[in-house]
């Protein structure tokens, strides 16, 4: 790029556009008259000295809770909450009385003191009356001891002692203690006891709180504007309703860094410098971006909408950036893959450069951020990730969020933004990044713009999927801190709810010890599908919230379960006990209302309320909040069932989950027989209804109606009639009609989805290869489309065999979820994915199957395949990928001879063999010109001609064919390249994008290559782009062989 | 009547060399053509700025806007119109996976369209661009306004490069006619065979004079594209990887008919044959002339002059420039201008023959020059394949007189246009067999 000339003199310095990024100053606060109200966002505990005048232990080091949040005025708050003591419950022998408390405590303390300091570790032991959550044991309460300890660590110490030391106290000799709630972490414990929900508004009434400052005895330790101390008993947590439903304007900082890597090597913090850091700041709920800037190493030309901070030394840049973060004081840090790349890289890099102050990025002044490796077991499998402490700031990595909430083929930012927002993003390959950095201020500007876009996209995603709003609501509904929604499993949410309800109902939750169990319960039922292709409308009847409803209707709970041996122990009559289809016994609600049903009823009622409110709400911000809430409530209600069935969970109870599914099965069966009894010719209907399939919570009914209206009418009617046969709140609802409907097998079906009679809503495909991730895109595309036409299938197969498909569609991605050792047999893609993971950890492995190679070698970079015309193993794709799904799906439509139609038809005869440009044989071959018509080798004297003498009469035909082909390629060439130009949002700058997730990338490349061939032949968007370019080249040469079209133009000039 | 009629002679010069190229290189991207266009137009725009505003306002590079303290200034750049309805390969690819039929649009403007101005380095969103509905992507212009920060530029006034100087038109003593037709659509000859016959007979002099026009004074026939076809049925462009060579060759017959048609005409008159987008030539502009192997009979006559699209020539000192109509049709799709003749006029003001190329109109990836820029003003500017005949004389501020002609499709209108080089009068003649 031409360097711009400095025209004229630089008189004025850059326009000072720097805005003040500090938070608004605190208006005067007087703790004696003012309440302090803030929305809590982060919570943690630390061990510190007691604060005078607070409840709890007065000596030694005690746990102190630290809450971070911001006020409505956007002032940051750090609130130290004192006096909260950790505790656990244990069962007691009946003989144990009040008089035993003191000696028992003494004994315990003596044992504990051996390995600890001089303080009493056990602060207090109380006798409390209550019931264990598990099993119905009559209405009698029994004795429990609440043992309060000074520090959280002592909880497990007490547990250990009571378990092992049988002779600790004479009255408990040989008594086997049962432990309750000993495995609850202190944060959850605190939130439950103080009734604080996640992200709740907290009010500290006047006179109860004490401000910290530079002068006070307890110095301020945080960077927050307001830092206070309060007793845990004084704070008020508001329910998130009415005025407290609002969300404070949290500062969200999105970050993206660029590193100057070396060719072919993924950047390493010990070697490769950080060259740019882009920052986008937004206030939650605001439309406009609050601040947009980029820190660059070396100069960078001005960018219209963003501020540039340039530094000559990397260390200066990093320090300045850290200072920027501290000044900005963000509440939420986001970005894409920041947890595993950007932040660890920055910290490691700063460490490597010896920057002492850099790591102090959190809100606690003297606490540096440190990277820890954590392995987490979630429902998605075992995952290793890095954990960094930024006290007071929530790390909200969109990569994690998207992985949690969406099932996508690939989780690169590009693919995610494409699939979720339909936006393509320019992707600059990291090898080019270094070149751009080493150019001039204009190339660095180019890089900065790219970097800014990468920082802005996660924010756009966050707004688009409303994940933060939804998560805040989830935190409020389930009462867990926001952070645990991202880095903890599903179960914490149910545990928190159970604890909250158990507390008020007088139950204690047993500390379940994880014991591997071989118990199995039968899963959901599936009615045997009557497979086939249905041309009649198929009505679908659904049970709404089936599992929660069953639990409520039949009062299934831990607290109502009666063990078989105790069925006769409590003088209960037969009417008071429900025996579930799976043979378990539960007492009825008339005897004792179960806790889970109560929780579920509340959740469902709250959801109903949220939905009603949502209908009337006009403000889009609150609409989003309410919608997030009703979603959170729905998910929570459904997760209760899963919790009882999770065998590695906190408190599995297979009796409950087994009963729930058993009821579900029974209900589906019942529904079937009811439908078939009611809607038959004998009852005056025109034909016999038939239930063709039923799954978990829905049944598909073929009323044999010929039109939508009738089918819908019957569906609605049937839902109402049948609902009456079930116990409230179980309800059958009519939801949709499929017409037509293709039922392939269990959980595999497709159809057009109607809820209105005039127009279908969508094409619904379940379990068909369209949504499975371990198939290549080609399969998805083909299956989707062939639902419409078989000829398309034939064409595609033919194209595949003729090497005429988009290479990007042949890429198979598989993700490794296990550790290396777990894969005993090393599959090819595992081996490759490992290799690739080293290079680019964010991606799933991309494989392409080539001809006659061992699989490991066959996996070469896609691009290489394209550029060198390496033959692709077409038969692999046809036989291993396409054939089975195709046969499955087309079987019901085409009948038995489907295989011969699809896989062995005329269209499979014509195959194209590609000659590789690389490989041993290529070196020995010599290219001879052949006749474009009949492909015979041209004689030496004919070599300049396009066709042989015998094809000469057909020359026009051949030319037109070739020119039409060339035309198509040219058309694609221009469409693709202009699209990329538009996508990168600049007409005047070169397209550098090499995004592998962009469908155009390959097409572009291919078109270019084809054009070269066609020119010599035309190209797709990168691969396609390239291919077209190559083909155009080919096409061009072929055309040229007909001779220059402009032949002898000059001769005709001045003709008269 | 004498036994031999001698056709009036005219001097002829083909000025289209910039539209033909020796080799094709598809390894270039399109950004180069925008850069070349901007730097070439920059010169013309600076003149225009001087004419319009004198030295009152400083001319500022876009990337300098953020650095300098100018309040009101002039910026020069290329317009980009971000249109949500603009067809997109990406959207098509995404939709191909869905089954929802997408509405087919032929006009892509919407109230949400946003304008940007862009130079080599920087892009600014425009606010207050009053005549946005008339504009399209690719126009190079100068805007007076101020930087509003946040990447936005507020427009107060604007200017285009405007008409280039025109060479003087020679004074002709006698009438001298050039006939223009387009869209013969010989593929569908059944609809128009009689009209084509009439037309050819007229040119050959068999019909005598019509409307007082001496047939022997007709010096040239220009066929402005789409002689073979005007529409193509199954030429739906899809953007998957595959390009299938279409083996059916239904247009061969039409090509043969064209050859015969030209074979007759070339015996009596000079014919300039321009390709159109549906003809068997390449797809991108400029289109190459018809290949000689397609016209084995007529090629023997020197009077057959195969030319490029766009095409520029000088006949007896009168400059003619025109296209087969693609740029005009394209601009109509992406702006709210309704009359093709108005688009032609605007092209003169914008000083560009095809501003929407390459964005929405395919063109060859030029890298060292933009052949679509008008370096001087023609006397006649025409475009082929329009729905109706339309003509107009426009005048430039520098005394330029330009005859604009929209040549209608012959296959539907049976109309040819007759232009008198002496006084630039232009009239249609309808060859309706009924």
TrEMBL record, chain A:
<feature type="domain" description="C4-type zinc-finger of DNA polymerase delta">
    <location>
        <begin position="931"/>
        <end position="1004"/>
    </location>
</feature>
<dbReference type="InterPro" id="IPR025687">
    <property type="entry name" value="Znf-C4pol"/>
</dbReference>
<keyword id="KW-0808">Transferase</keyword>
<dbReference type="GO" id="GO:0008270">
    <property type="term" value="F:zinc ion binding"/>
</dbReference>
<dbReference type="InterPro" id="IPR042087">
    <property type="entry name" value="DNA_pol_B_thumb"/>
</dbReference>
<dbReference type="Pfam" id="PF14260">
    <property type="entry name" value="zf-C4pol"/>
</dbReference>
<dbReference type="InterPro" id="IPR012337">
    <property type="entry name" value="RNaseH-like_sf"/>
</dbReference>
<dbReference type="GO" id="GO:0000166">
    <property type="term" value="F:nucleotide binding"/>
</dbReference>
<feature type="domain" description="DNA-directed DNA polymerase family B exonuclease">
    <location>
        <begin position="179"/>
        <end position="416"/>
    </location>
</feature>
<feature type="domain" description="DNA-directed DNA polymerase family B multifunctional">
    <location>
        <begin position="480"/>
        <end position="892"/>
    </location>
</feature>
<keyword id="KW-0004">4Fe-4S</keyword>
<dbReference type="GO" id="GO:0051539">
    <property type="term" value="F:4 iron, 4 sulfur cluster binding"/>
</dbReference>
<dbReference type="GO" id="GO:0008296">
    <property type="term" value="F:3'-5'-DNA exonuclease activity"/>
</dbReference>
<keyword id="KW-0548">Nucleotidyltransferase</keyword>
<dbReference type="InterPro" id="IPR036397">
    <property type="entry name" value="RNaseH_sf"/>
</dbReference>
<keyword id="KW-0238">DNA-binding</keyword>
<keyword id="KW-0408">Iron</keyword>
<protein>
    <recommendedName>
        <fullName>DNA polymerase</fullName>
        <ecNumber>2.7.7.7</ecNumber>
    </recommendedName>
</protein>
<keyword id="KW-0239">DNA-directed DNA polymerase</keyword>
<dbReference type="InterPro" id="IPR056435">
    <property type="entry name" value="DPOD/Z_N"/>
</dbReference>
<dbReference type="GO" id="GO:0003677">
    <property type="term" value="F:DNA binding"/>
</dbReference>
<keyword id="KW-0235">DNA replication</keyword>
Automatic annotation (TrEMBL), chain B:
<dbReference type="InterPro" id="IPR040663">
    <property type="entry name" value="DNA_pol_D_N"/>
</dbReference>
<dbReference type="InterPro" id="IPR041863">
    <property type="entry name" value="PolD2_C"/>
</dbReference>
<dbReference type="GO" id="GO:1902969">
    <property type="term" value="P:mitotic DNA replication"/>
</dbReference>
<feature type="domain" description="DNA polymerase delta subunit OB-fold">
    <location>
        <begin position="29"/>
        <end position="158"/>
    </location>
</feature>
<protein>
    <submittedName>
        <fullName>DNA polymerase alpha/epsilon subunit B</fullName>
    </submittedName>
</protein>
<dbReference type="Pfam" id="PF18018">
    <property type="entry name" value="DNA_pol_D_N"/>
</dbReference>
<keyword id="KW-0539">Nucleus</keyword>
<feature type="domain" description="DNA polymerase alpha/delta/epsilon subunit B">
    <location>
        <begin position="178"/>
        <end position="391"/>
    </location>
</feature>
<dbReference type="GO" id="GO:0003677">
    <property type="term" value="F:DNA binding"/>
</dbReference>
<dbReference type="GO" id="GO:0006271">
    <property type="term" value="P:DNA strand elongation involved in DNA replication"/>
</dbReference>
<keyword id="KW-0235">DNA replication</keyword>
<dbReference type="InterPro" id="IPR007185">
    <property type="entry name" value="DNA_pol_a/d/e_bsu"/>
</dbReference>
<dbReference type="InterPro" id="IPR024826">
    <property type="entry name" value="DNA_pol_delta/II_ssu"/>
</dbReference>
<dbReference type="Pfam" id="PF04042">
    <property type="entry name" value="DNA_pol_E_B"/>
</dbReference>
<dbReference type="GO" id="GO:0043625">
    <property type="term" value="C:delta DNA polymerase complex"/>
</dbReference>
<comment type="similarity">
    <text>Belongs to the DNA polymerase delta/II small subunit family.</text>
</comment>
């Amino acid at each position: 790029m031409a360097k711009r000339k400095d025209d004229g003199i630089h008189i004025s310095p850059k326009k000072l556009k720097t805005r003040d990024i500090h938070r608004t100053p605190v208006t005067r606060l007087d703790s004696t008259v003012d309440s302090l109200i803030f929305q809590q966002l982060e919570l943690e505990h630390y061990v510190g000295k007691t604060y005078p005048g607070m409840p709890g232990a007065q000596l030694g080091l005690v746990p102190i809770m630290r809450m971070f949040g911001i006020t409505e005025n956007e002032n940051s708050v750090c609130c130290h909450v004192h006096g909260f003591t950790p505790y656990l419950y244990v069962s007691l022998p009946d003989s144990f009385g009040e008089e035993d408390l003191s000696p028992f405590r003494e004994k315990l303390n003596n044992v504990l003191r051996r390995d600890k300091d001089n303080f009493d570790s056990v602060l207090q032991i109380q006798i409390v009356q209550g019931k264990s959550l598990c099993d119905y044991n009559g209405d009698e309460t029994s004795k429990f001891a609440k043992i309060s300890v000074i520090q959280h660590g002592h909880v497990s110490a007490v547990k250990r002692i009571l378990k092992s030391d049988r002779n600790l106290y004479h009255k408990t000799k040989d008594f086997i203690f049962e432990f309750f709630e000993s495995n609850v972490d202190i944060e959850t414990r605190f939130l439950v006891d103080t009734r604080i929900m996640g992200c709740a508004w907290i009010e500290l009434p006047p006179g109860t709180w004490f401000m910290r400052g530079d002068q006070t005895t307890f110095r301020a330790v945080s960077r927050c504007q307001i830092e206070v101390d309060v007793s845990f008993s004084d704070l008020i947590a508001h329910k998130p309703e009415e005025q407290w439903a609002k969300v404070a304007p949290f500062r969200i900082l999105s970050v993206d860094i660029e590193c100057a890597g070396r060719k072919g090597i993924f950047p390493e913090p010990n070697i490769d410098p950080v060259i740019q850091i882009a920052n986008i700041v937004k206030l939650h709920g605001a439309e406009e971006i609050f601040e947009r800037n980029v820190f660059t190493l070396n100069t960078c030309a001005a960018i219209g909408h963003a501020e540039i901070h340039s530094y000559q030394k990397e260390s200066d840049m990093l320090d300045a950036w850290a200072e920027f973060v501290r000044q900005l004081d963000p509440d939420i840090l986001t970005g894409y893959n920041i947890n595993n790349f950007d932040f660890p890289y920055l910290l490691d890099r700063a460490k490597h450069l010896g920057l002492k102050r850099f790591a102090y990025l959190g809100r606690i002044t003297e606490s540096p951020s440190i990277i820890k490796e954590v392995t987490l077991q979630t429902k998605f499998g075992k995952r290793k990730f890095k954990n960094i402490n930024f006290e007071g700031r929530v790390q909200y990595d969109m990569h994690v969020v998207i992985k949690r909430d969406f099932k996508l083929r690939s989780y690169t930012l590009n693919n995610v933004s494409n699939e979720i927002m339909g936006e393509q993003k320019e992707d600059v390959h990291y090898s080019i990044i270094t070149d751009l950095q080493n150019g001039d201020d204009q190339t660095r500007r180019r890089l900065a713009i790219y970097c800014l876009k990468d920082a802005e996209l996660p924010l756009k995603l966050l707004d688009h999927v409303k994940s933060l709003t939804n998560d805040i609501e989830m935190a409020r509904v389930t009462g867990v801190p926001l952070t645990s929604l991202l880095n903890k499993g599903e179960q914490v949410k149910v545990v928190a709810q159970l604890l909250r309800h158990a507390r008020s109902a007088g139950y204690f939750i047993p500390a379940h010890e994880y014991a591997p169990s071989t118990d199995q319960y039968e899963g959901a039922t599936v009615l045997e599908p009557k497979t086939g292709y249905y041309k009649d409308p198929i009505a679908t009847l659904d049970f709404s919230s089936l599992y929660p409803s069953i639990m409520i209707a039949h009062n299934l709970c831990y607290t109502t379960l009666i063990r078989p041996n105790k069925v006769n122990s409590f003088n209960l009559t037969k009417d008071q006990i429900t025996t579930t289809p799976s043979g378990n016994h539960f007492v009825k609600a008339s005897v004792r209302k179960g806790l889970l049903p109560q929780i579920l009823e509340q959740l469902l009622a709250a959801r109903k309320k949220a939905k009603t409110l949502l209908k009337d709400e006009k403000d889009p911000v609150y609409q989003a909040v309410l919608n997030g809430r009703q979603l959170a409530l729905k998910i929570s209600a459904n997760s209760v069932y899963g919790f009882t069935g999770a065998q590695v969970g906190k408190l599995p109870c297979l009796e409950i989950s087994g009963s729930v599914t058993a009821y579900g099965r029974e209900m589906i069966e019942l529904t079937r027989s009811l439908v078939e009894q009611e809607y038959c010719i004998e009852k005056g209907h025109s034909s016999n209804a038939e239930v063709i399939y039923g799954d978990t919570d829905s049944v598909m009914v073929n009323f044999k109606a010929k039109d939508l209206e009738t089918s819908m009418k019957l569906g609605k009617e049937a839902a109402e009639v049948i609902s009456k046969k079930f116990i409230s709140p179980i309800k059958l609802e009519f939801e949709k009609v499929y017409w037509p409907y293709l039922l392939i097998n269990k959980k595999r079906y497709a159809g057009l989805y109607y809820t209105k009679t005039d127009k279908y809503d969508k094409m619904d495909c379940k379990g068909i290869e369209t949504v499975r991730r371990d198939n290549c895109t080609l399969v998805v595309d083909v299956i989707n489309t062939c639902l419409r036409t078989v000829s398309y299938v034939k064409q595609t197969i033919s194209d595949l065999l003729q090497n005429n498909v988009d290479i990007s569609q042949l890429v198979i991605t598989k993700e490794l979820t296990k550790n290396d050792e777990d894969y005993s047999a090393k599959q090819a893609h595992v081996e490759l994915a490992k290799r690739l993971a080293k290079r680019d950890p964010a991606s799933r492995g991309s494989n392409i199957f080539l001809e006659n190679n061992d699989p490991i070698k066959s996996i070469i970079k896609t691009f290489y395949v394209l550029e060198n015309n390496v033959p692709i193993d077409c038969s692999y794709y046809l036989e291993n990928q396409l054939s089975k799904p195709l046969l499955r799906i087309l079987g019901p439509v085409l009948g038995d001879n489907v295989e011969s139609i699809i896989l062995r038809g005329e269209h499979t005869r014509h195959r194209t063999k590609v000659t590789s440009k690389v490989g041993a044989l290529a070196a020995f071959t010599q290219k001879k010109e052949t006749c474009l018509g009949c492909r015979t080798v041209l004689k030496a004297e004919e070599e300049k001609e396009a066709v042989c003498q015998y094809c000469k009469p057909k020359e026009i035909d051949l030319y037109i064919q070739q020119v039409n082909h060339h035309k198509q390629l040219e058309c694609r060439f221009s469409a693709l390249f202009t699209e990329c130009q538009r996508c990168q949002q600049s007409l005047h700058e070169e397209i550098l994008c090499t995004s592998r997730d962009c469908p155009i990338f390959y097409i572009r490349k291919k078109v270019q290559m084809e054009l070269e061939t066609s020119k010599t032949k035309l190209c797709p968007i990168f691969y396609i782009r390239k291919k077209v370019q190559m083909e155009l080249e080919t096409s061009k040469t072929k055309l040229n062989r007909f001779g220059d079209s402009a032949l002898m133009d000059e001769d005709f000039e001045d003709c008269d | 009547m004498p036994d031999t009629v001698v056709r009036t002679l005219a001097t002829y010069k083909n000025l289209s060399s910039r539209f033909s190229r020796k080799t094709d290189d598809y390894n270039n991207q399109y950004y180069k053509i925008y850069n070349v266009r901007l730097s070439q137009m920059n010169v013309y725009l600076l003149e225009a700025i001087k004419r319009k505003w004198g030295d009152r306002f400083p001319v500022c590079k876009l990337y300098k806007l953020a650095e300098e303290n100018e309040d009101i200034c002039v910026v020069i750049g290329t317009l980009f119109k971000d249109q949500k309805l603009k067809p997109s390969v990406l959207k098509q690819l995404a939709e191909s996976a869905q089954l929802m039929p997408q509405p087919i649009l032929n006009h892509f403007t919407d109230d949400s369209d946003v304008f940007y101005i862009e130079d080599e380095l920087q892009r600014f969103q425009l606010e207050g661009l009053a005549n946005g509905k008339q504009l399209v992507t690719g126009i190079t212009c100068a805007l007076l306004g101020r930087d509003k920060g946040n990447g936005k530029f507020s427009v107060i006034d604007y200017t285009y490069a405007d008409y280039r100087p025109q060479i003087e038109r020679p004074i002709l003593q006698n009438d001298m006619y050039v006939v223009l037709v387009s869209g013969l659509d010989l593929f569908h000859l059944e609809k128009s065979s009689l009209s084509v016959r009439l037309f050819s007979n007229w040119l050959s002099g068999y019909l005598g004079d019509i409307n007082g026009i001496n047939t022997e004074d007709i010096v040239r026939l220009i066929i402005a594209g789409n002689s073979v076809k005007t529409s193509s049925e199954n030429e739906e462009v899809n953007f998957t990887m595959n390009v299938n060579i279409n083996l059916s060759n239904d247009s061969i017959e039409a090509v043969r008919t064209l050859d015969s048609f030209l074979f007759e005409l070339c015996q009596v008159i000079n014919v300039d044959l321009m390709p159109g987008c549906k003809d068997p030539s390449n797809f991108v502009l400029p289109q190459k002339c018809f290949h000689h192997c397609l016209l084995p009979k007529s090629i023997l006559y020197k009077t057959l002059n195969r030319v490029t699209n766009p095409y520029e020539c000088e006949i007896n000192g009168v400059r003619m420039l025109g296209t087969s109509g693609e740029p005009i049709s394209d601009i109509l799709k992406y702006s709210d201008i309704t009359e093709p003749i108005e688009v032609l006029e605007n092209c003169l003001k914008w000083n560009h023959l095809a501003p929407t190329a390459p964005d929405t109109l395919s063109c060859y990836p030029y890298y060292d020059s933009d052949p679509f820029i008008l370096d001087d003003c023609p006397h006649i500017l025409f475009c082929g394949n329009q729905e109706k005949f339309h003509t107009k004389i426009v005048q430039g501020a520098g005394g330029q007189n330009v005859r604009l002609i929209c040549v209608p499709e012959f296959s539907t209108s049976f109309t040819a246009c007759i232009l008198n080089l002496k006084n630039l009068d232009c009239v249609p003649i309808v060859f309706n067999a009924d």
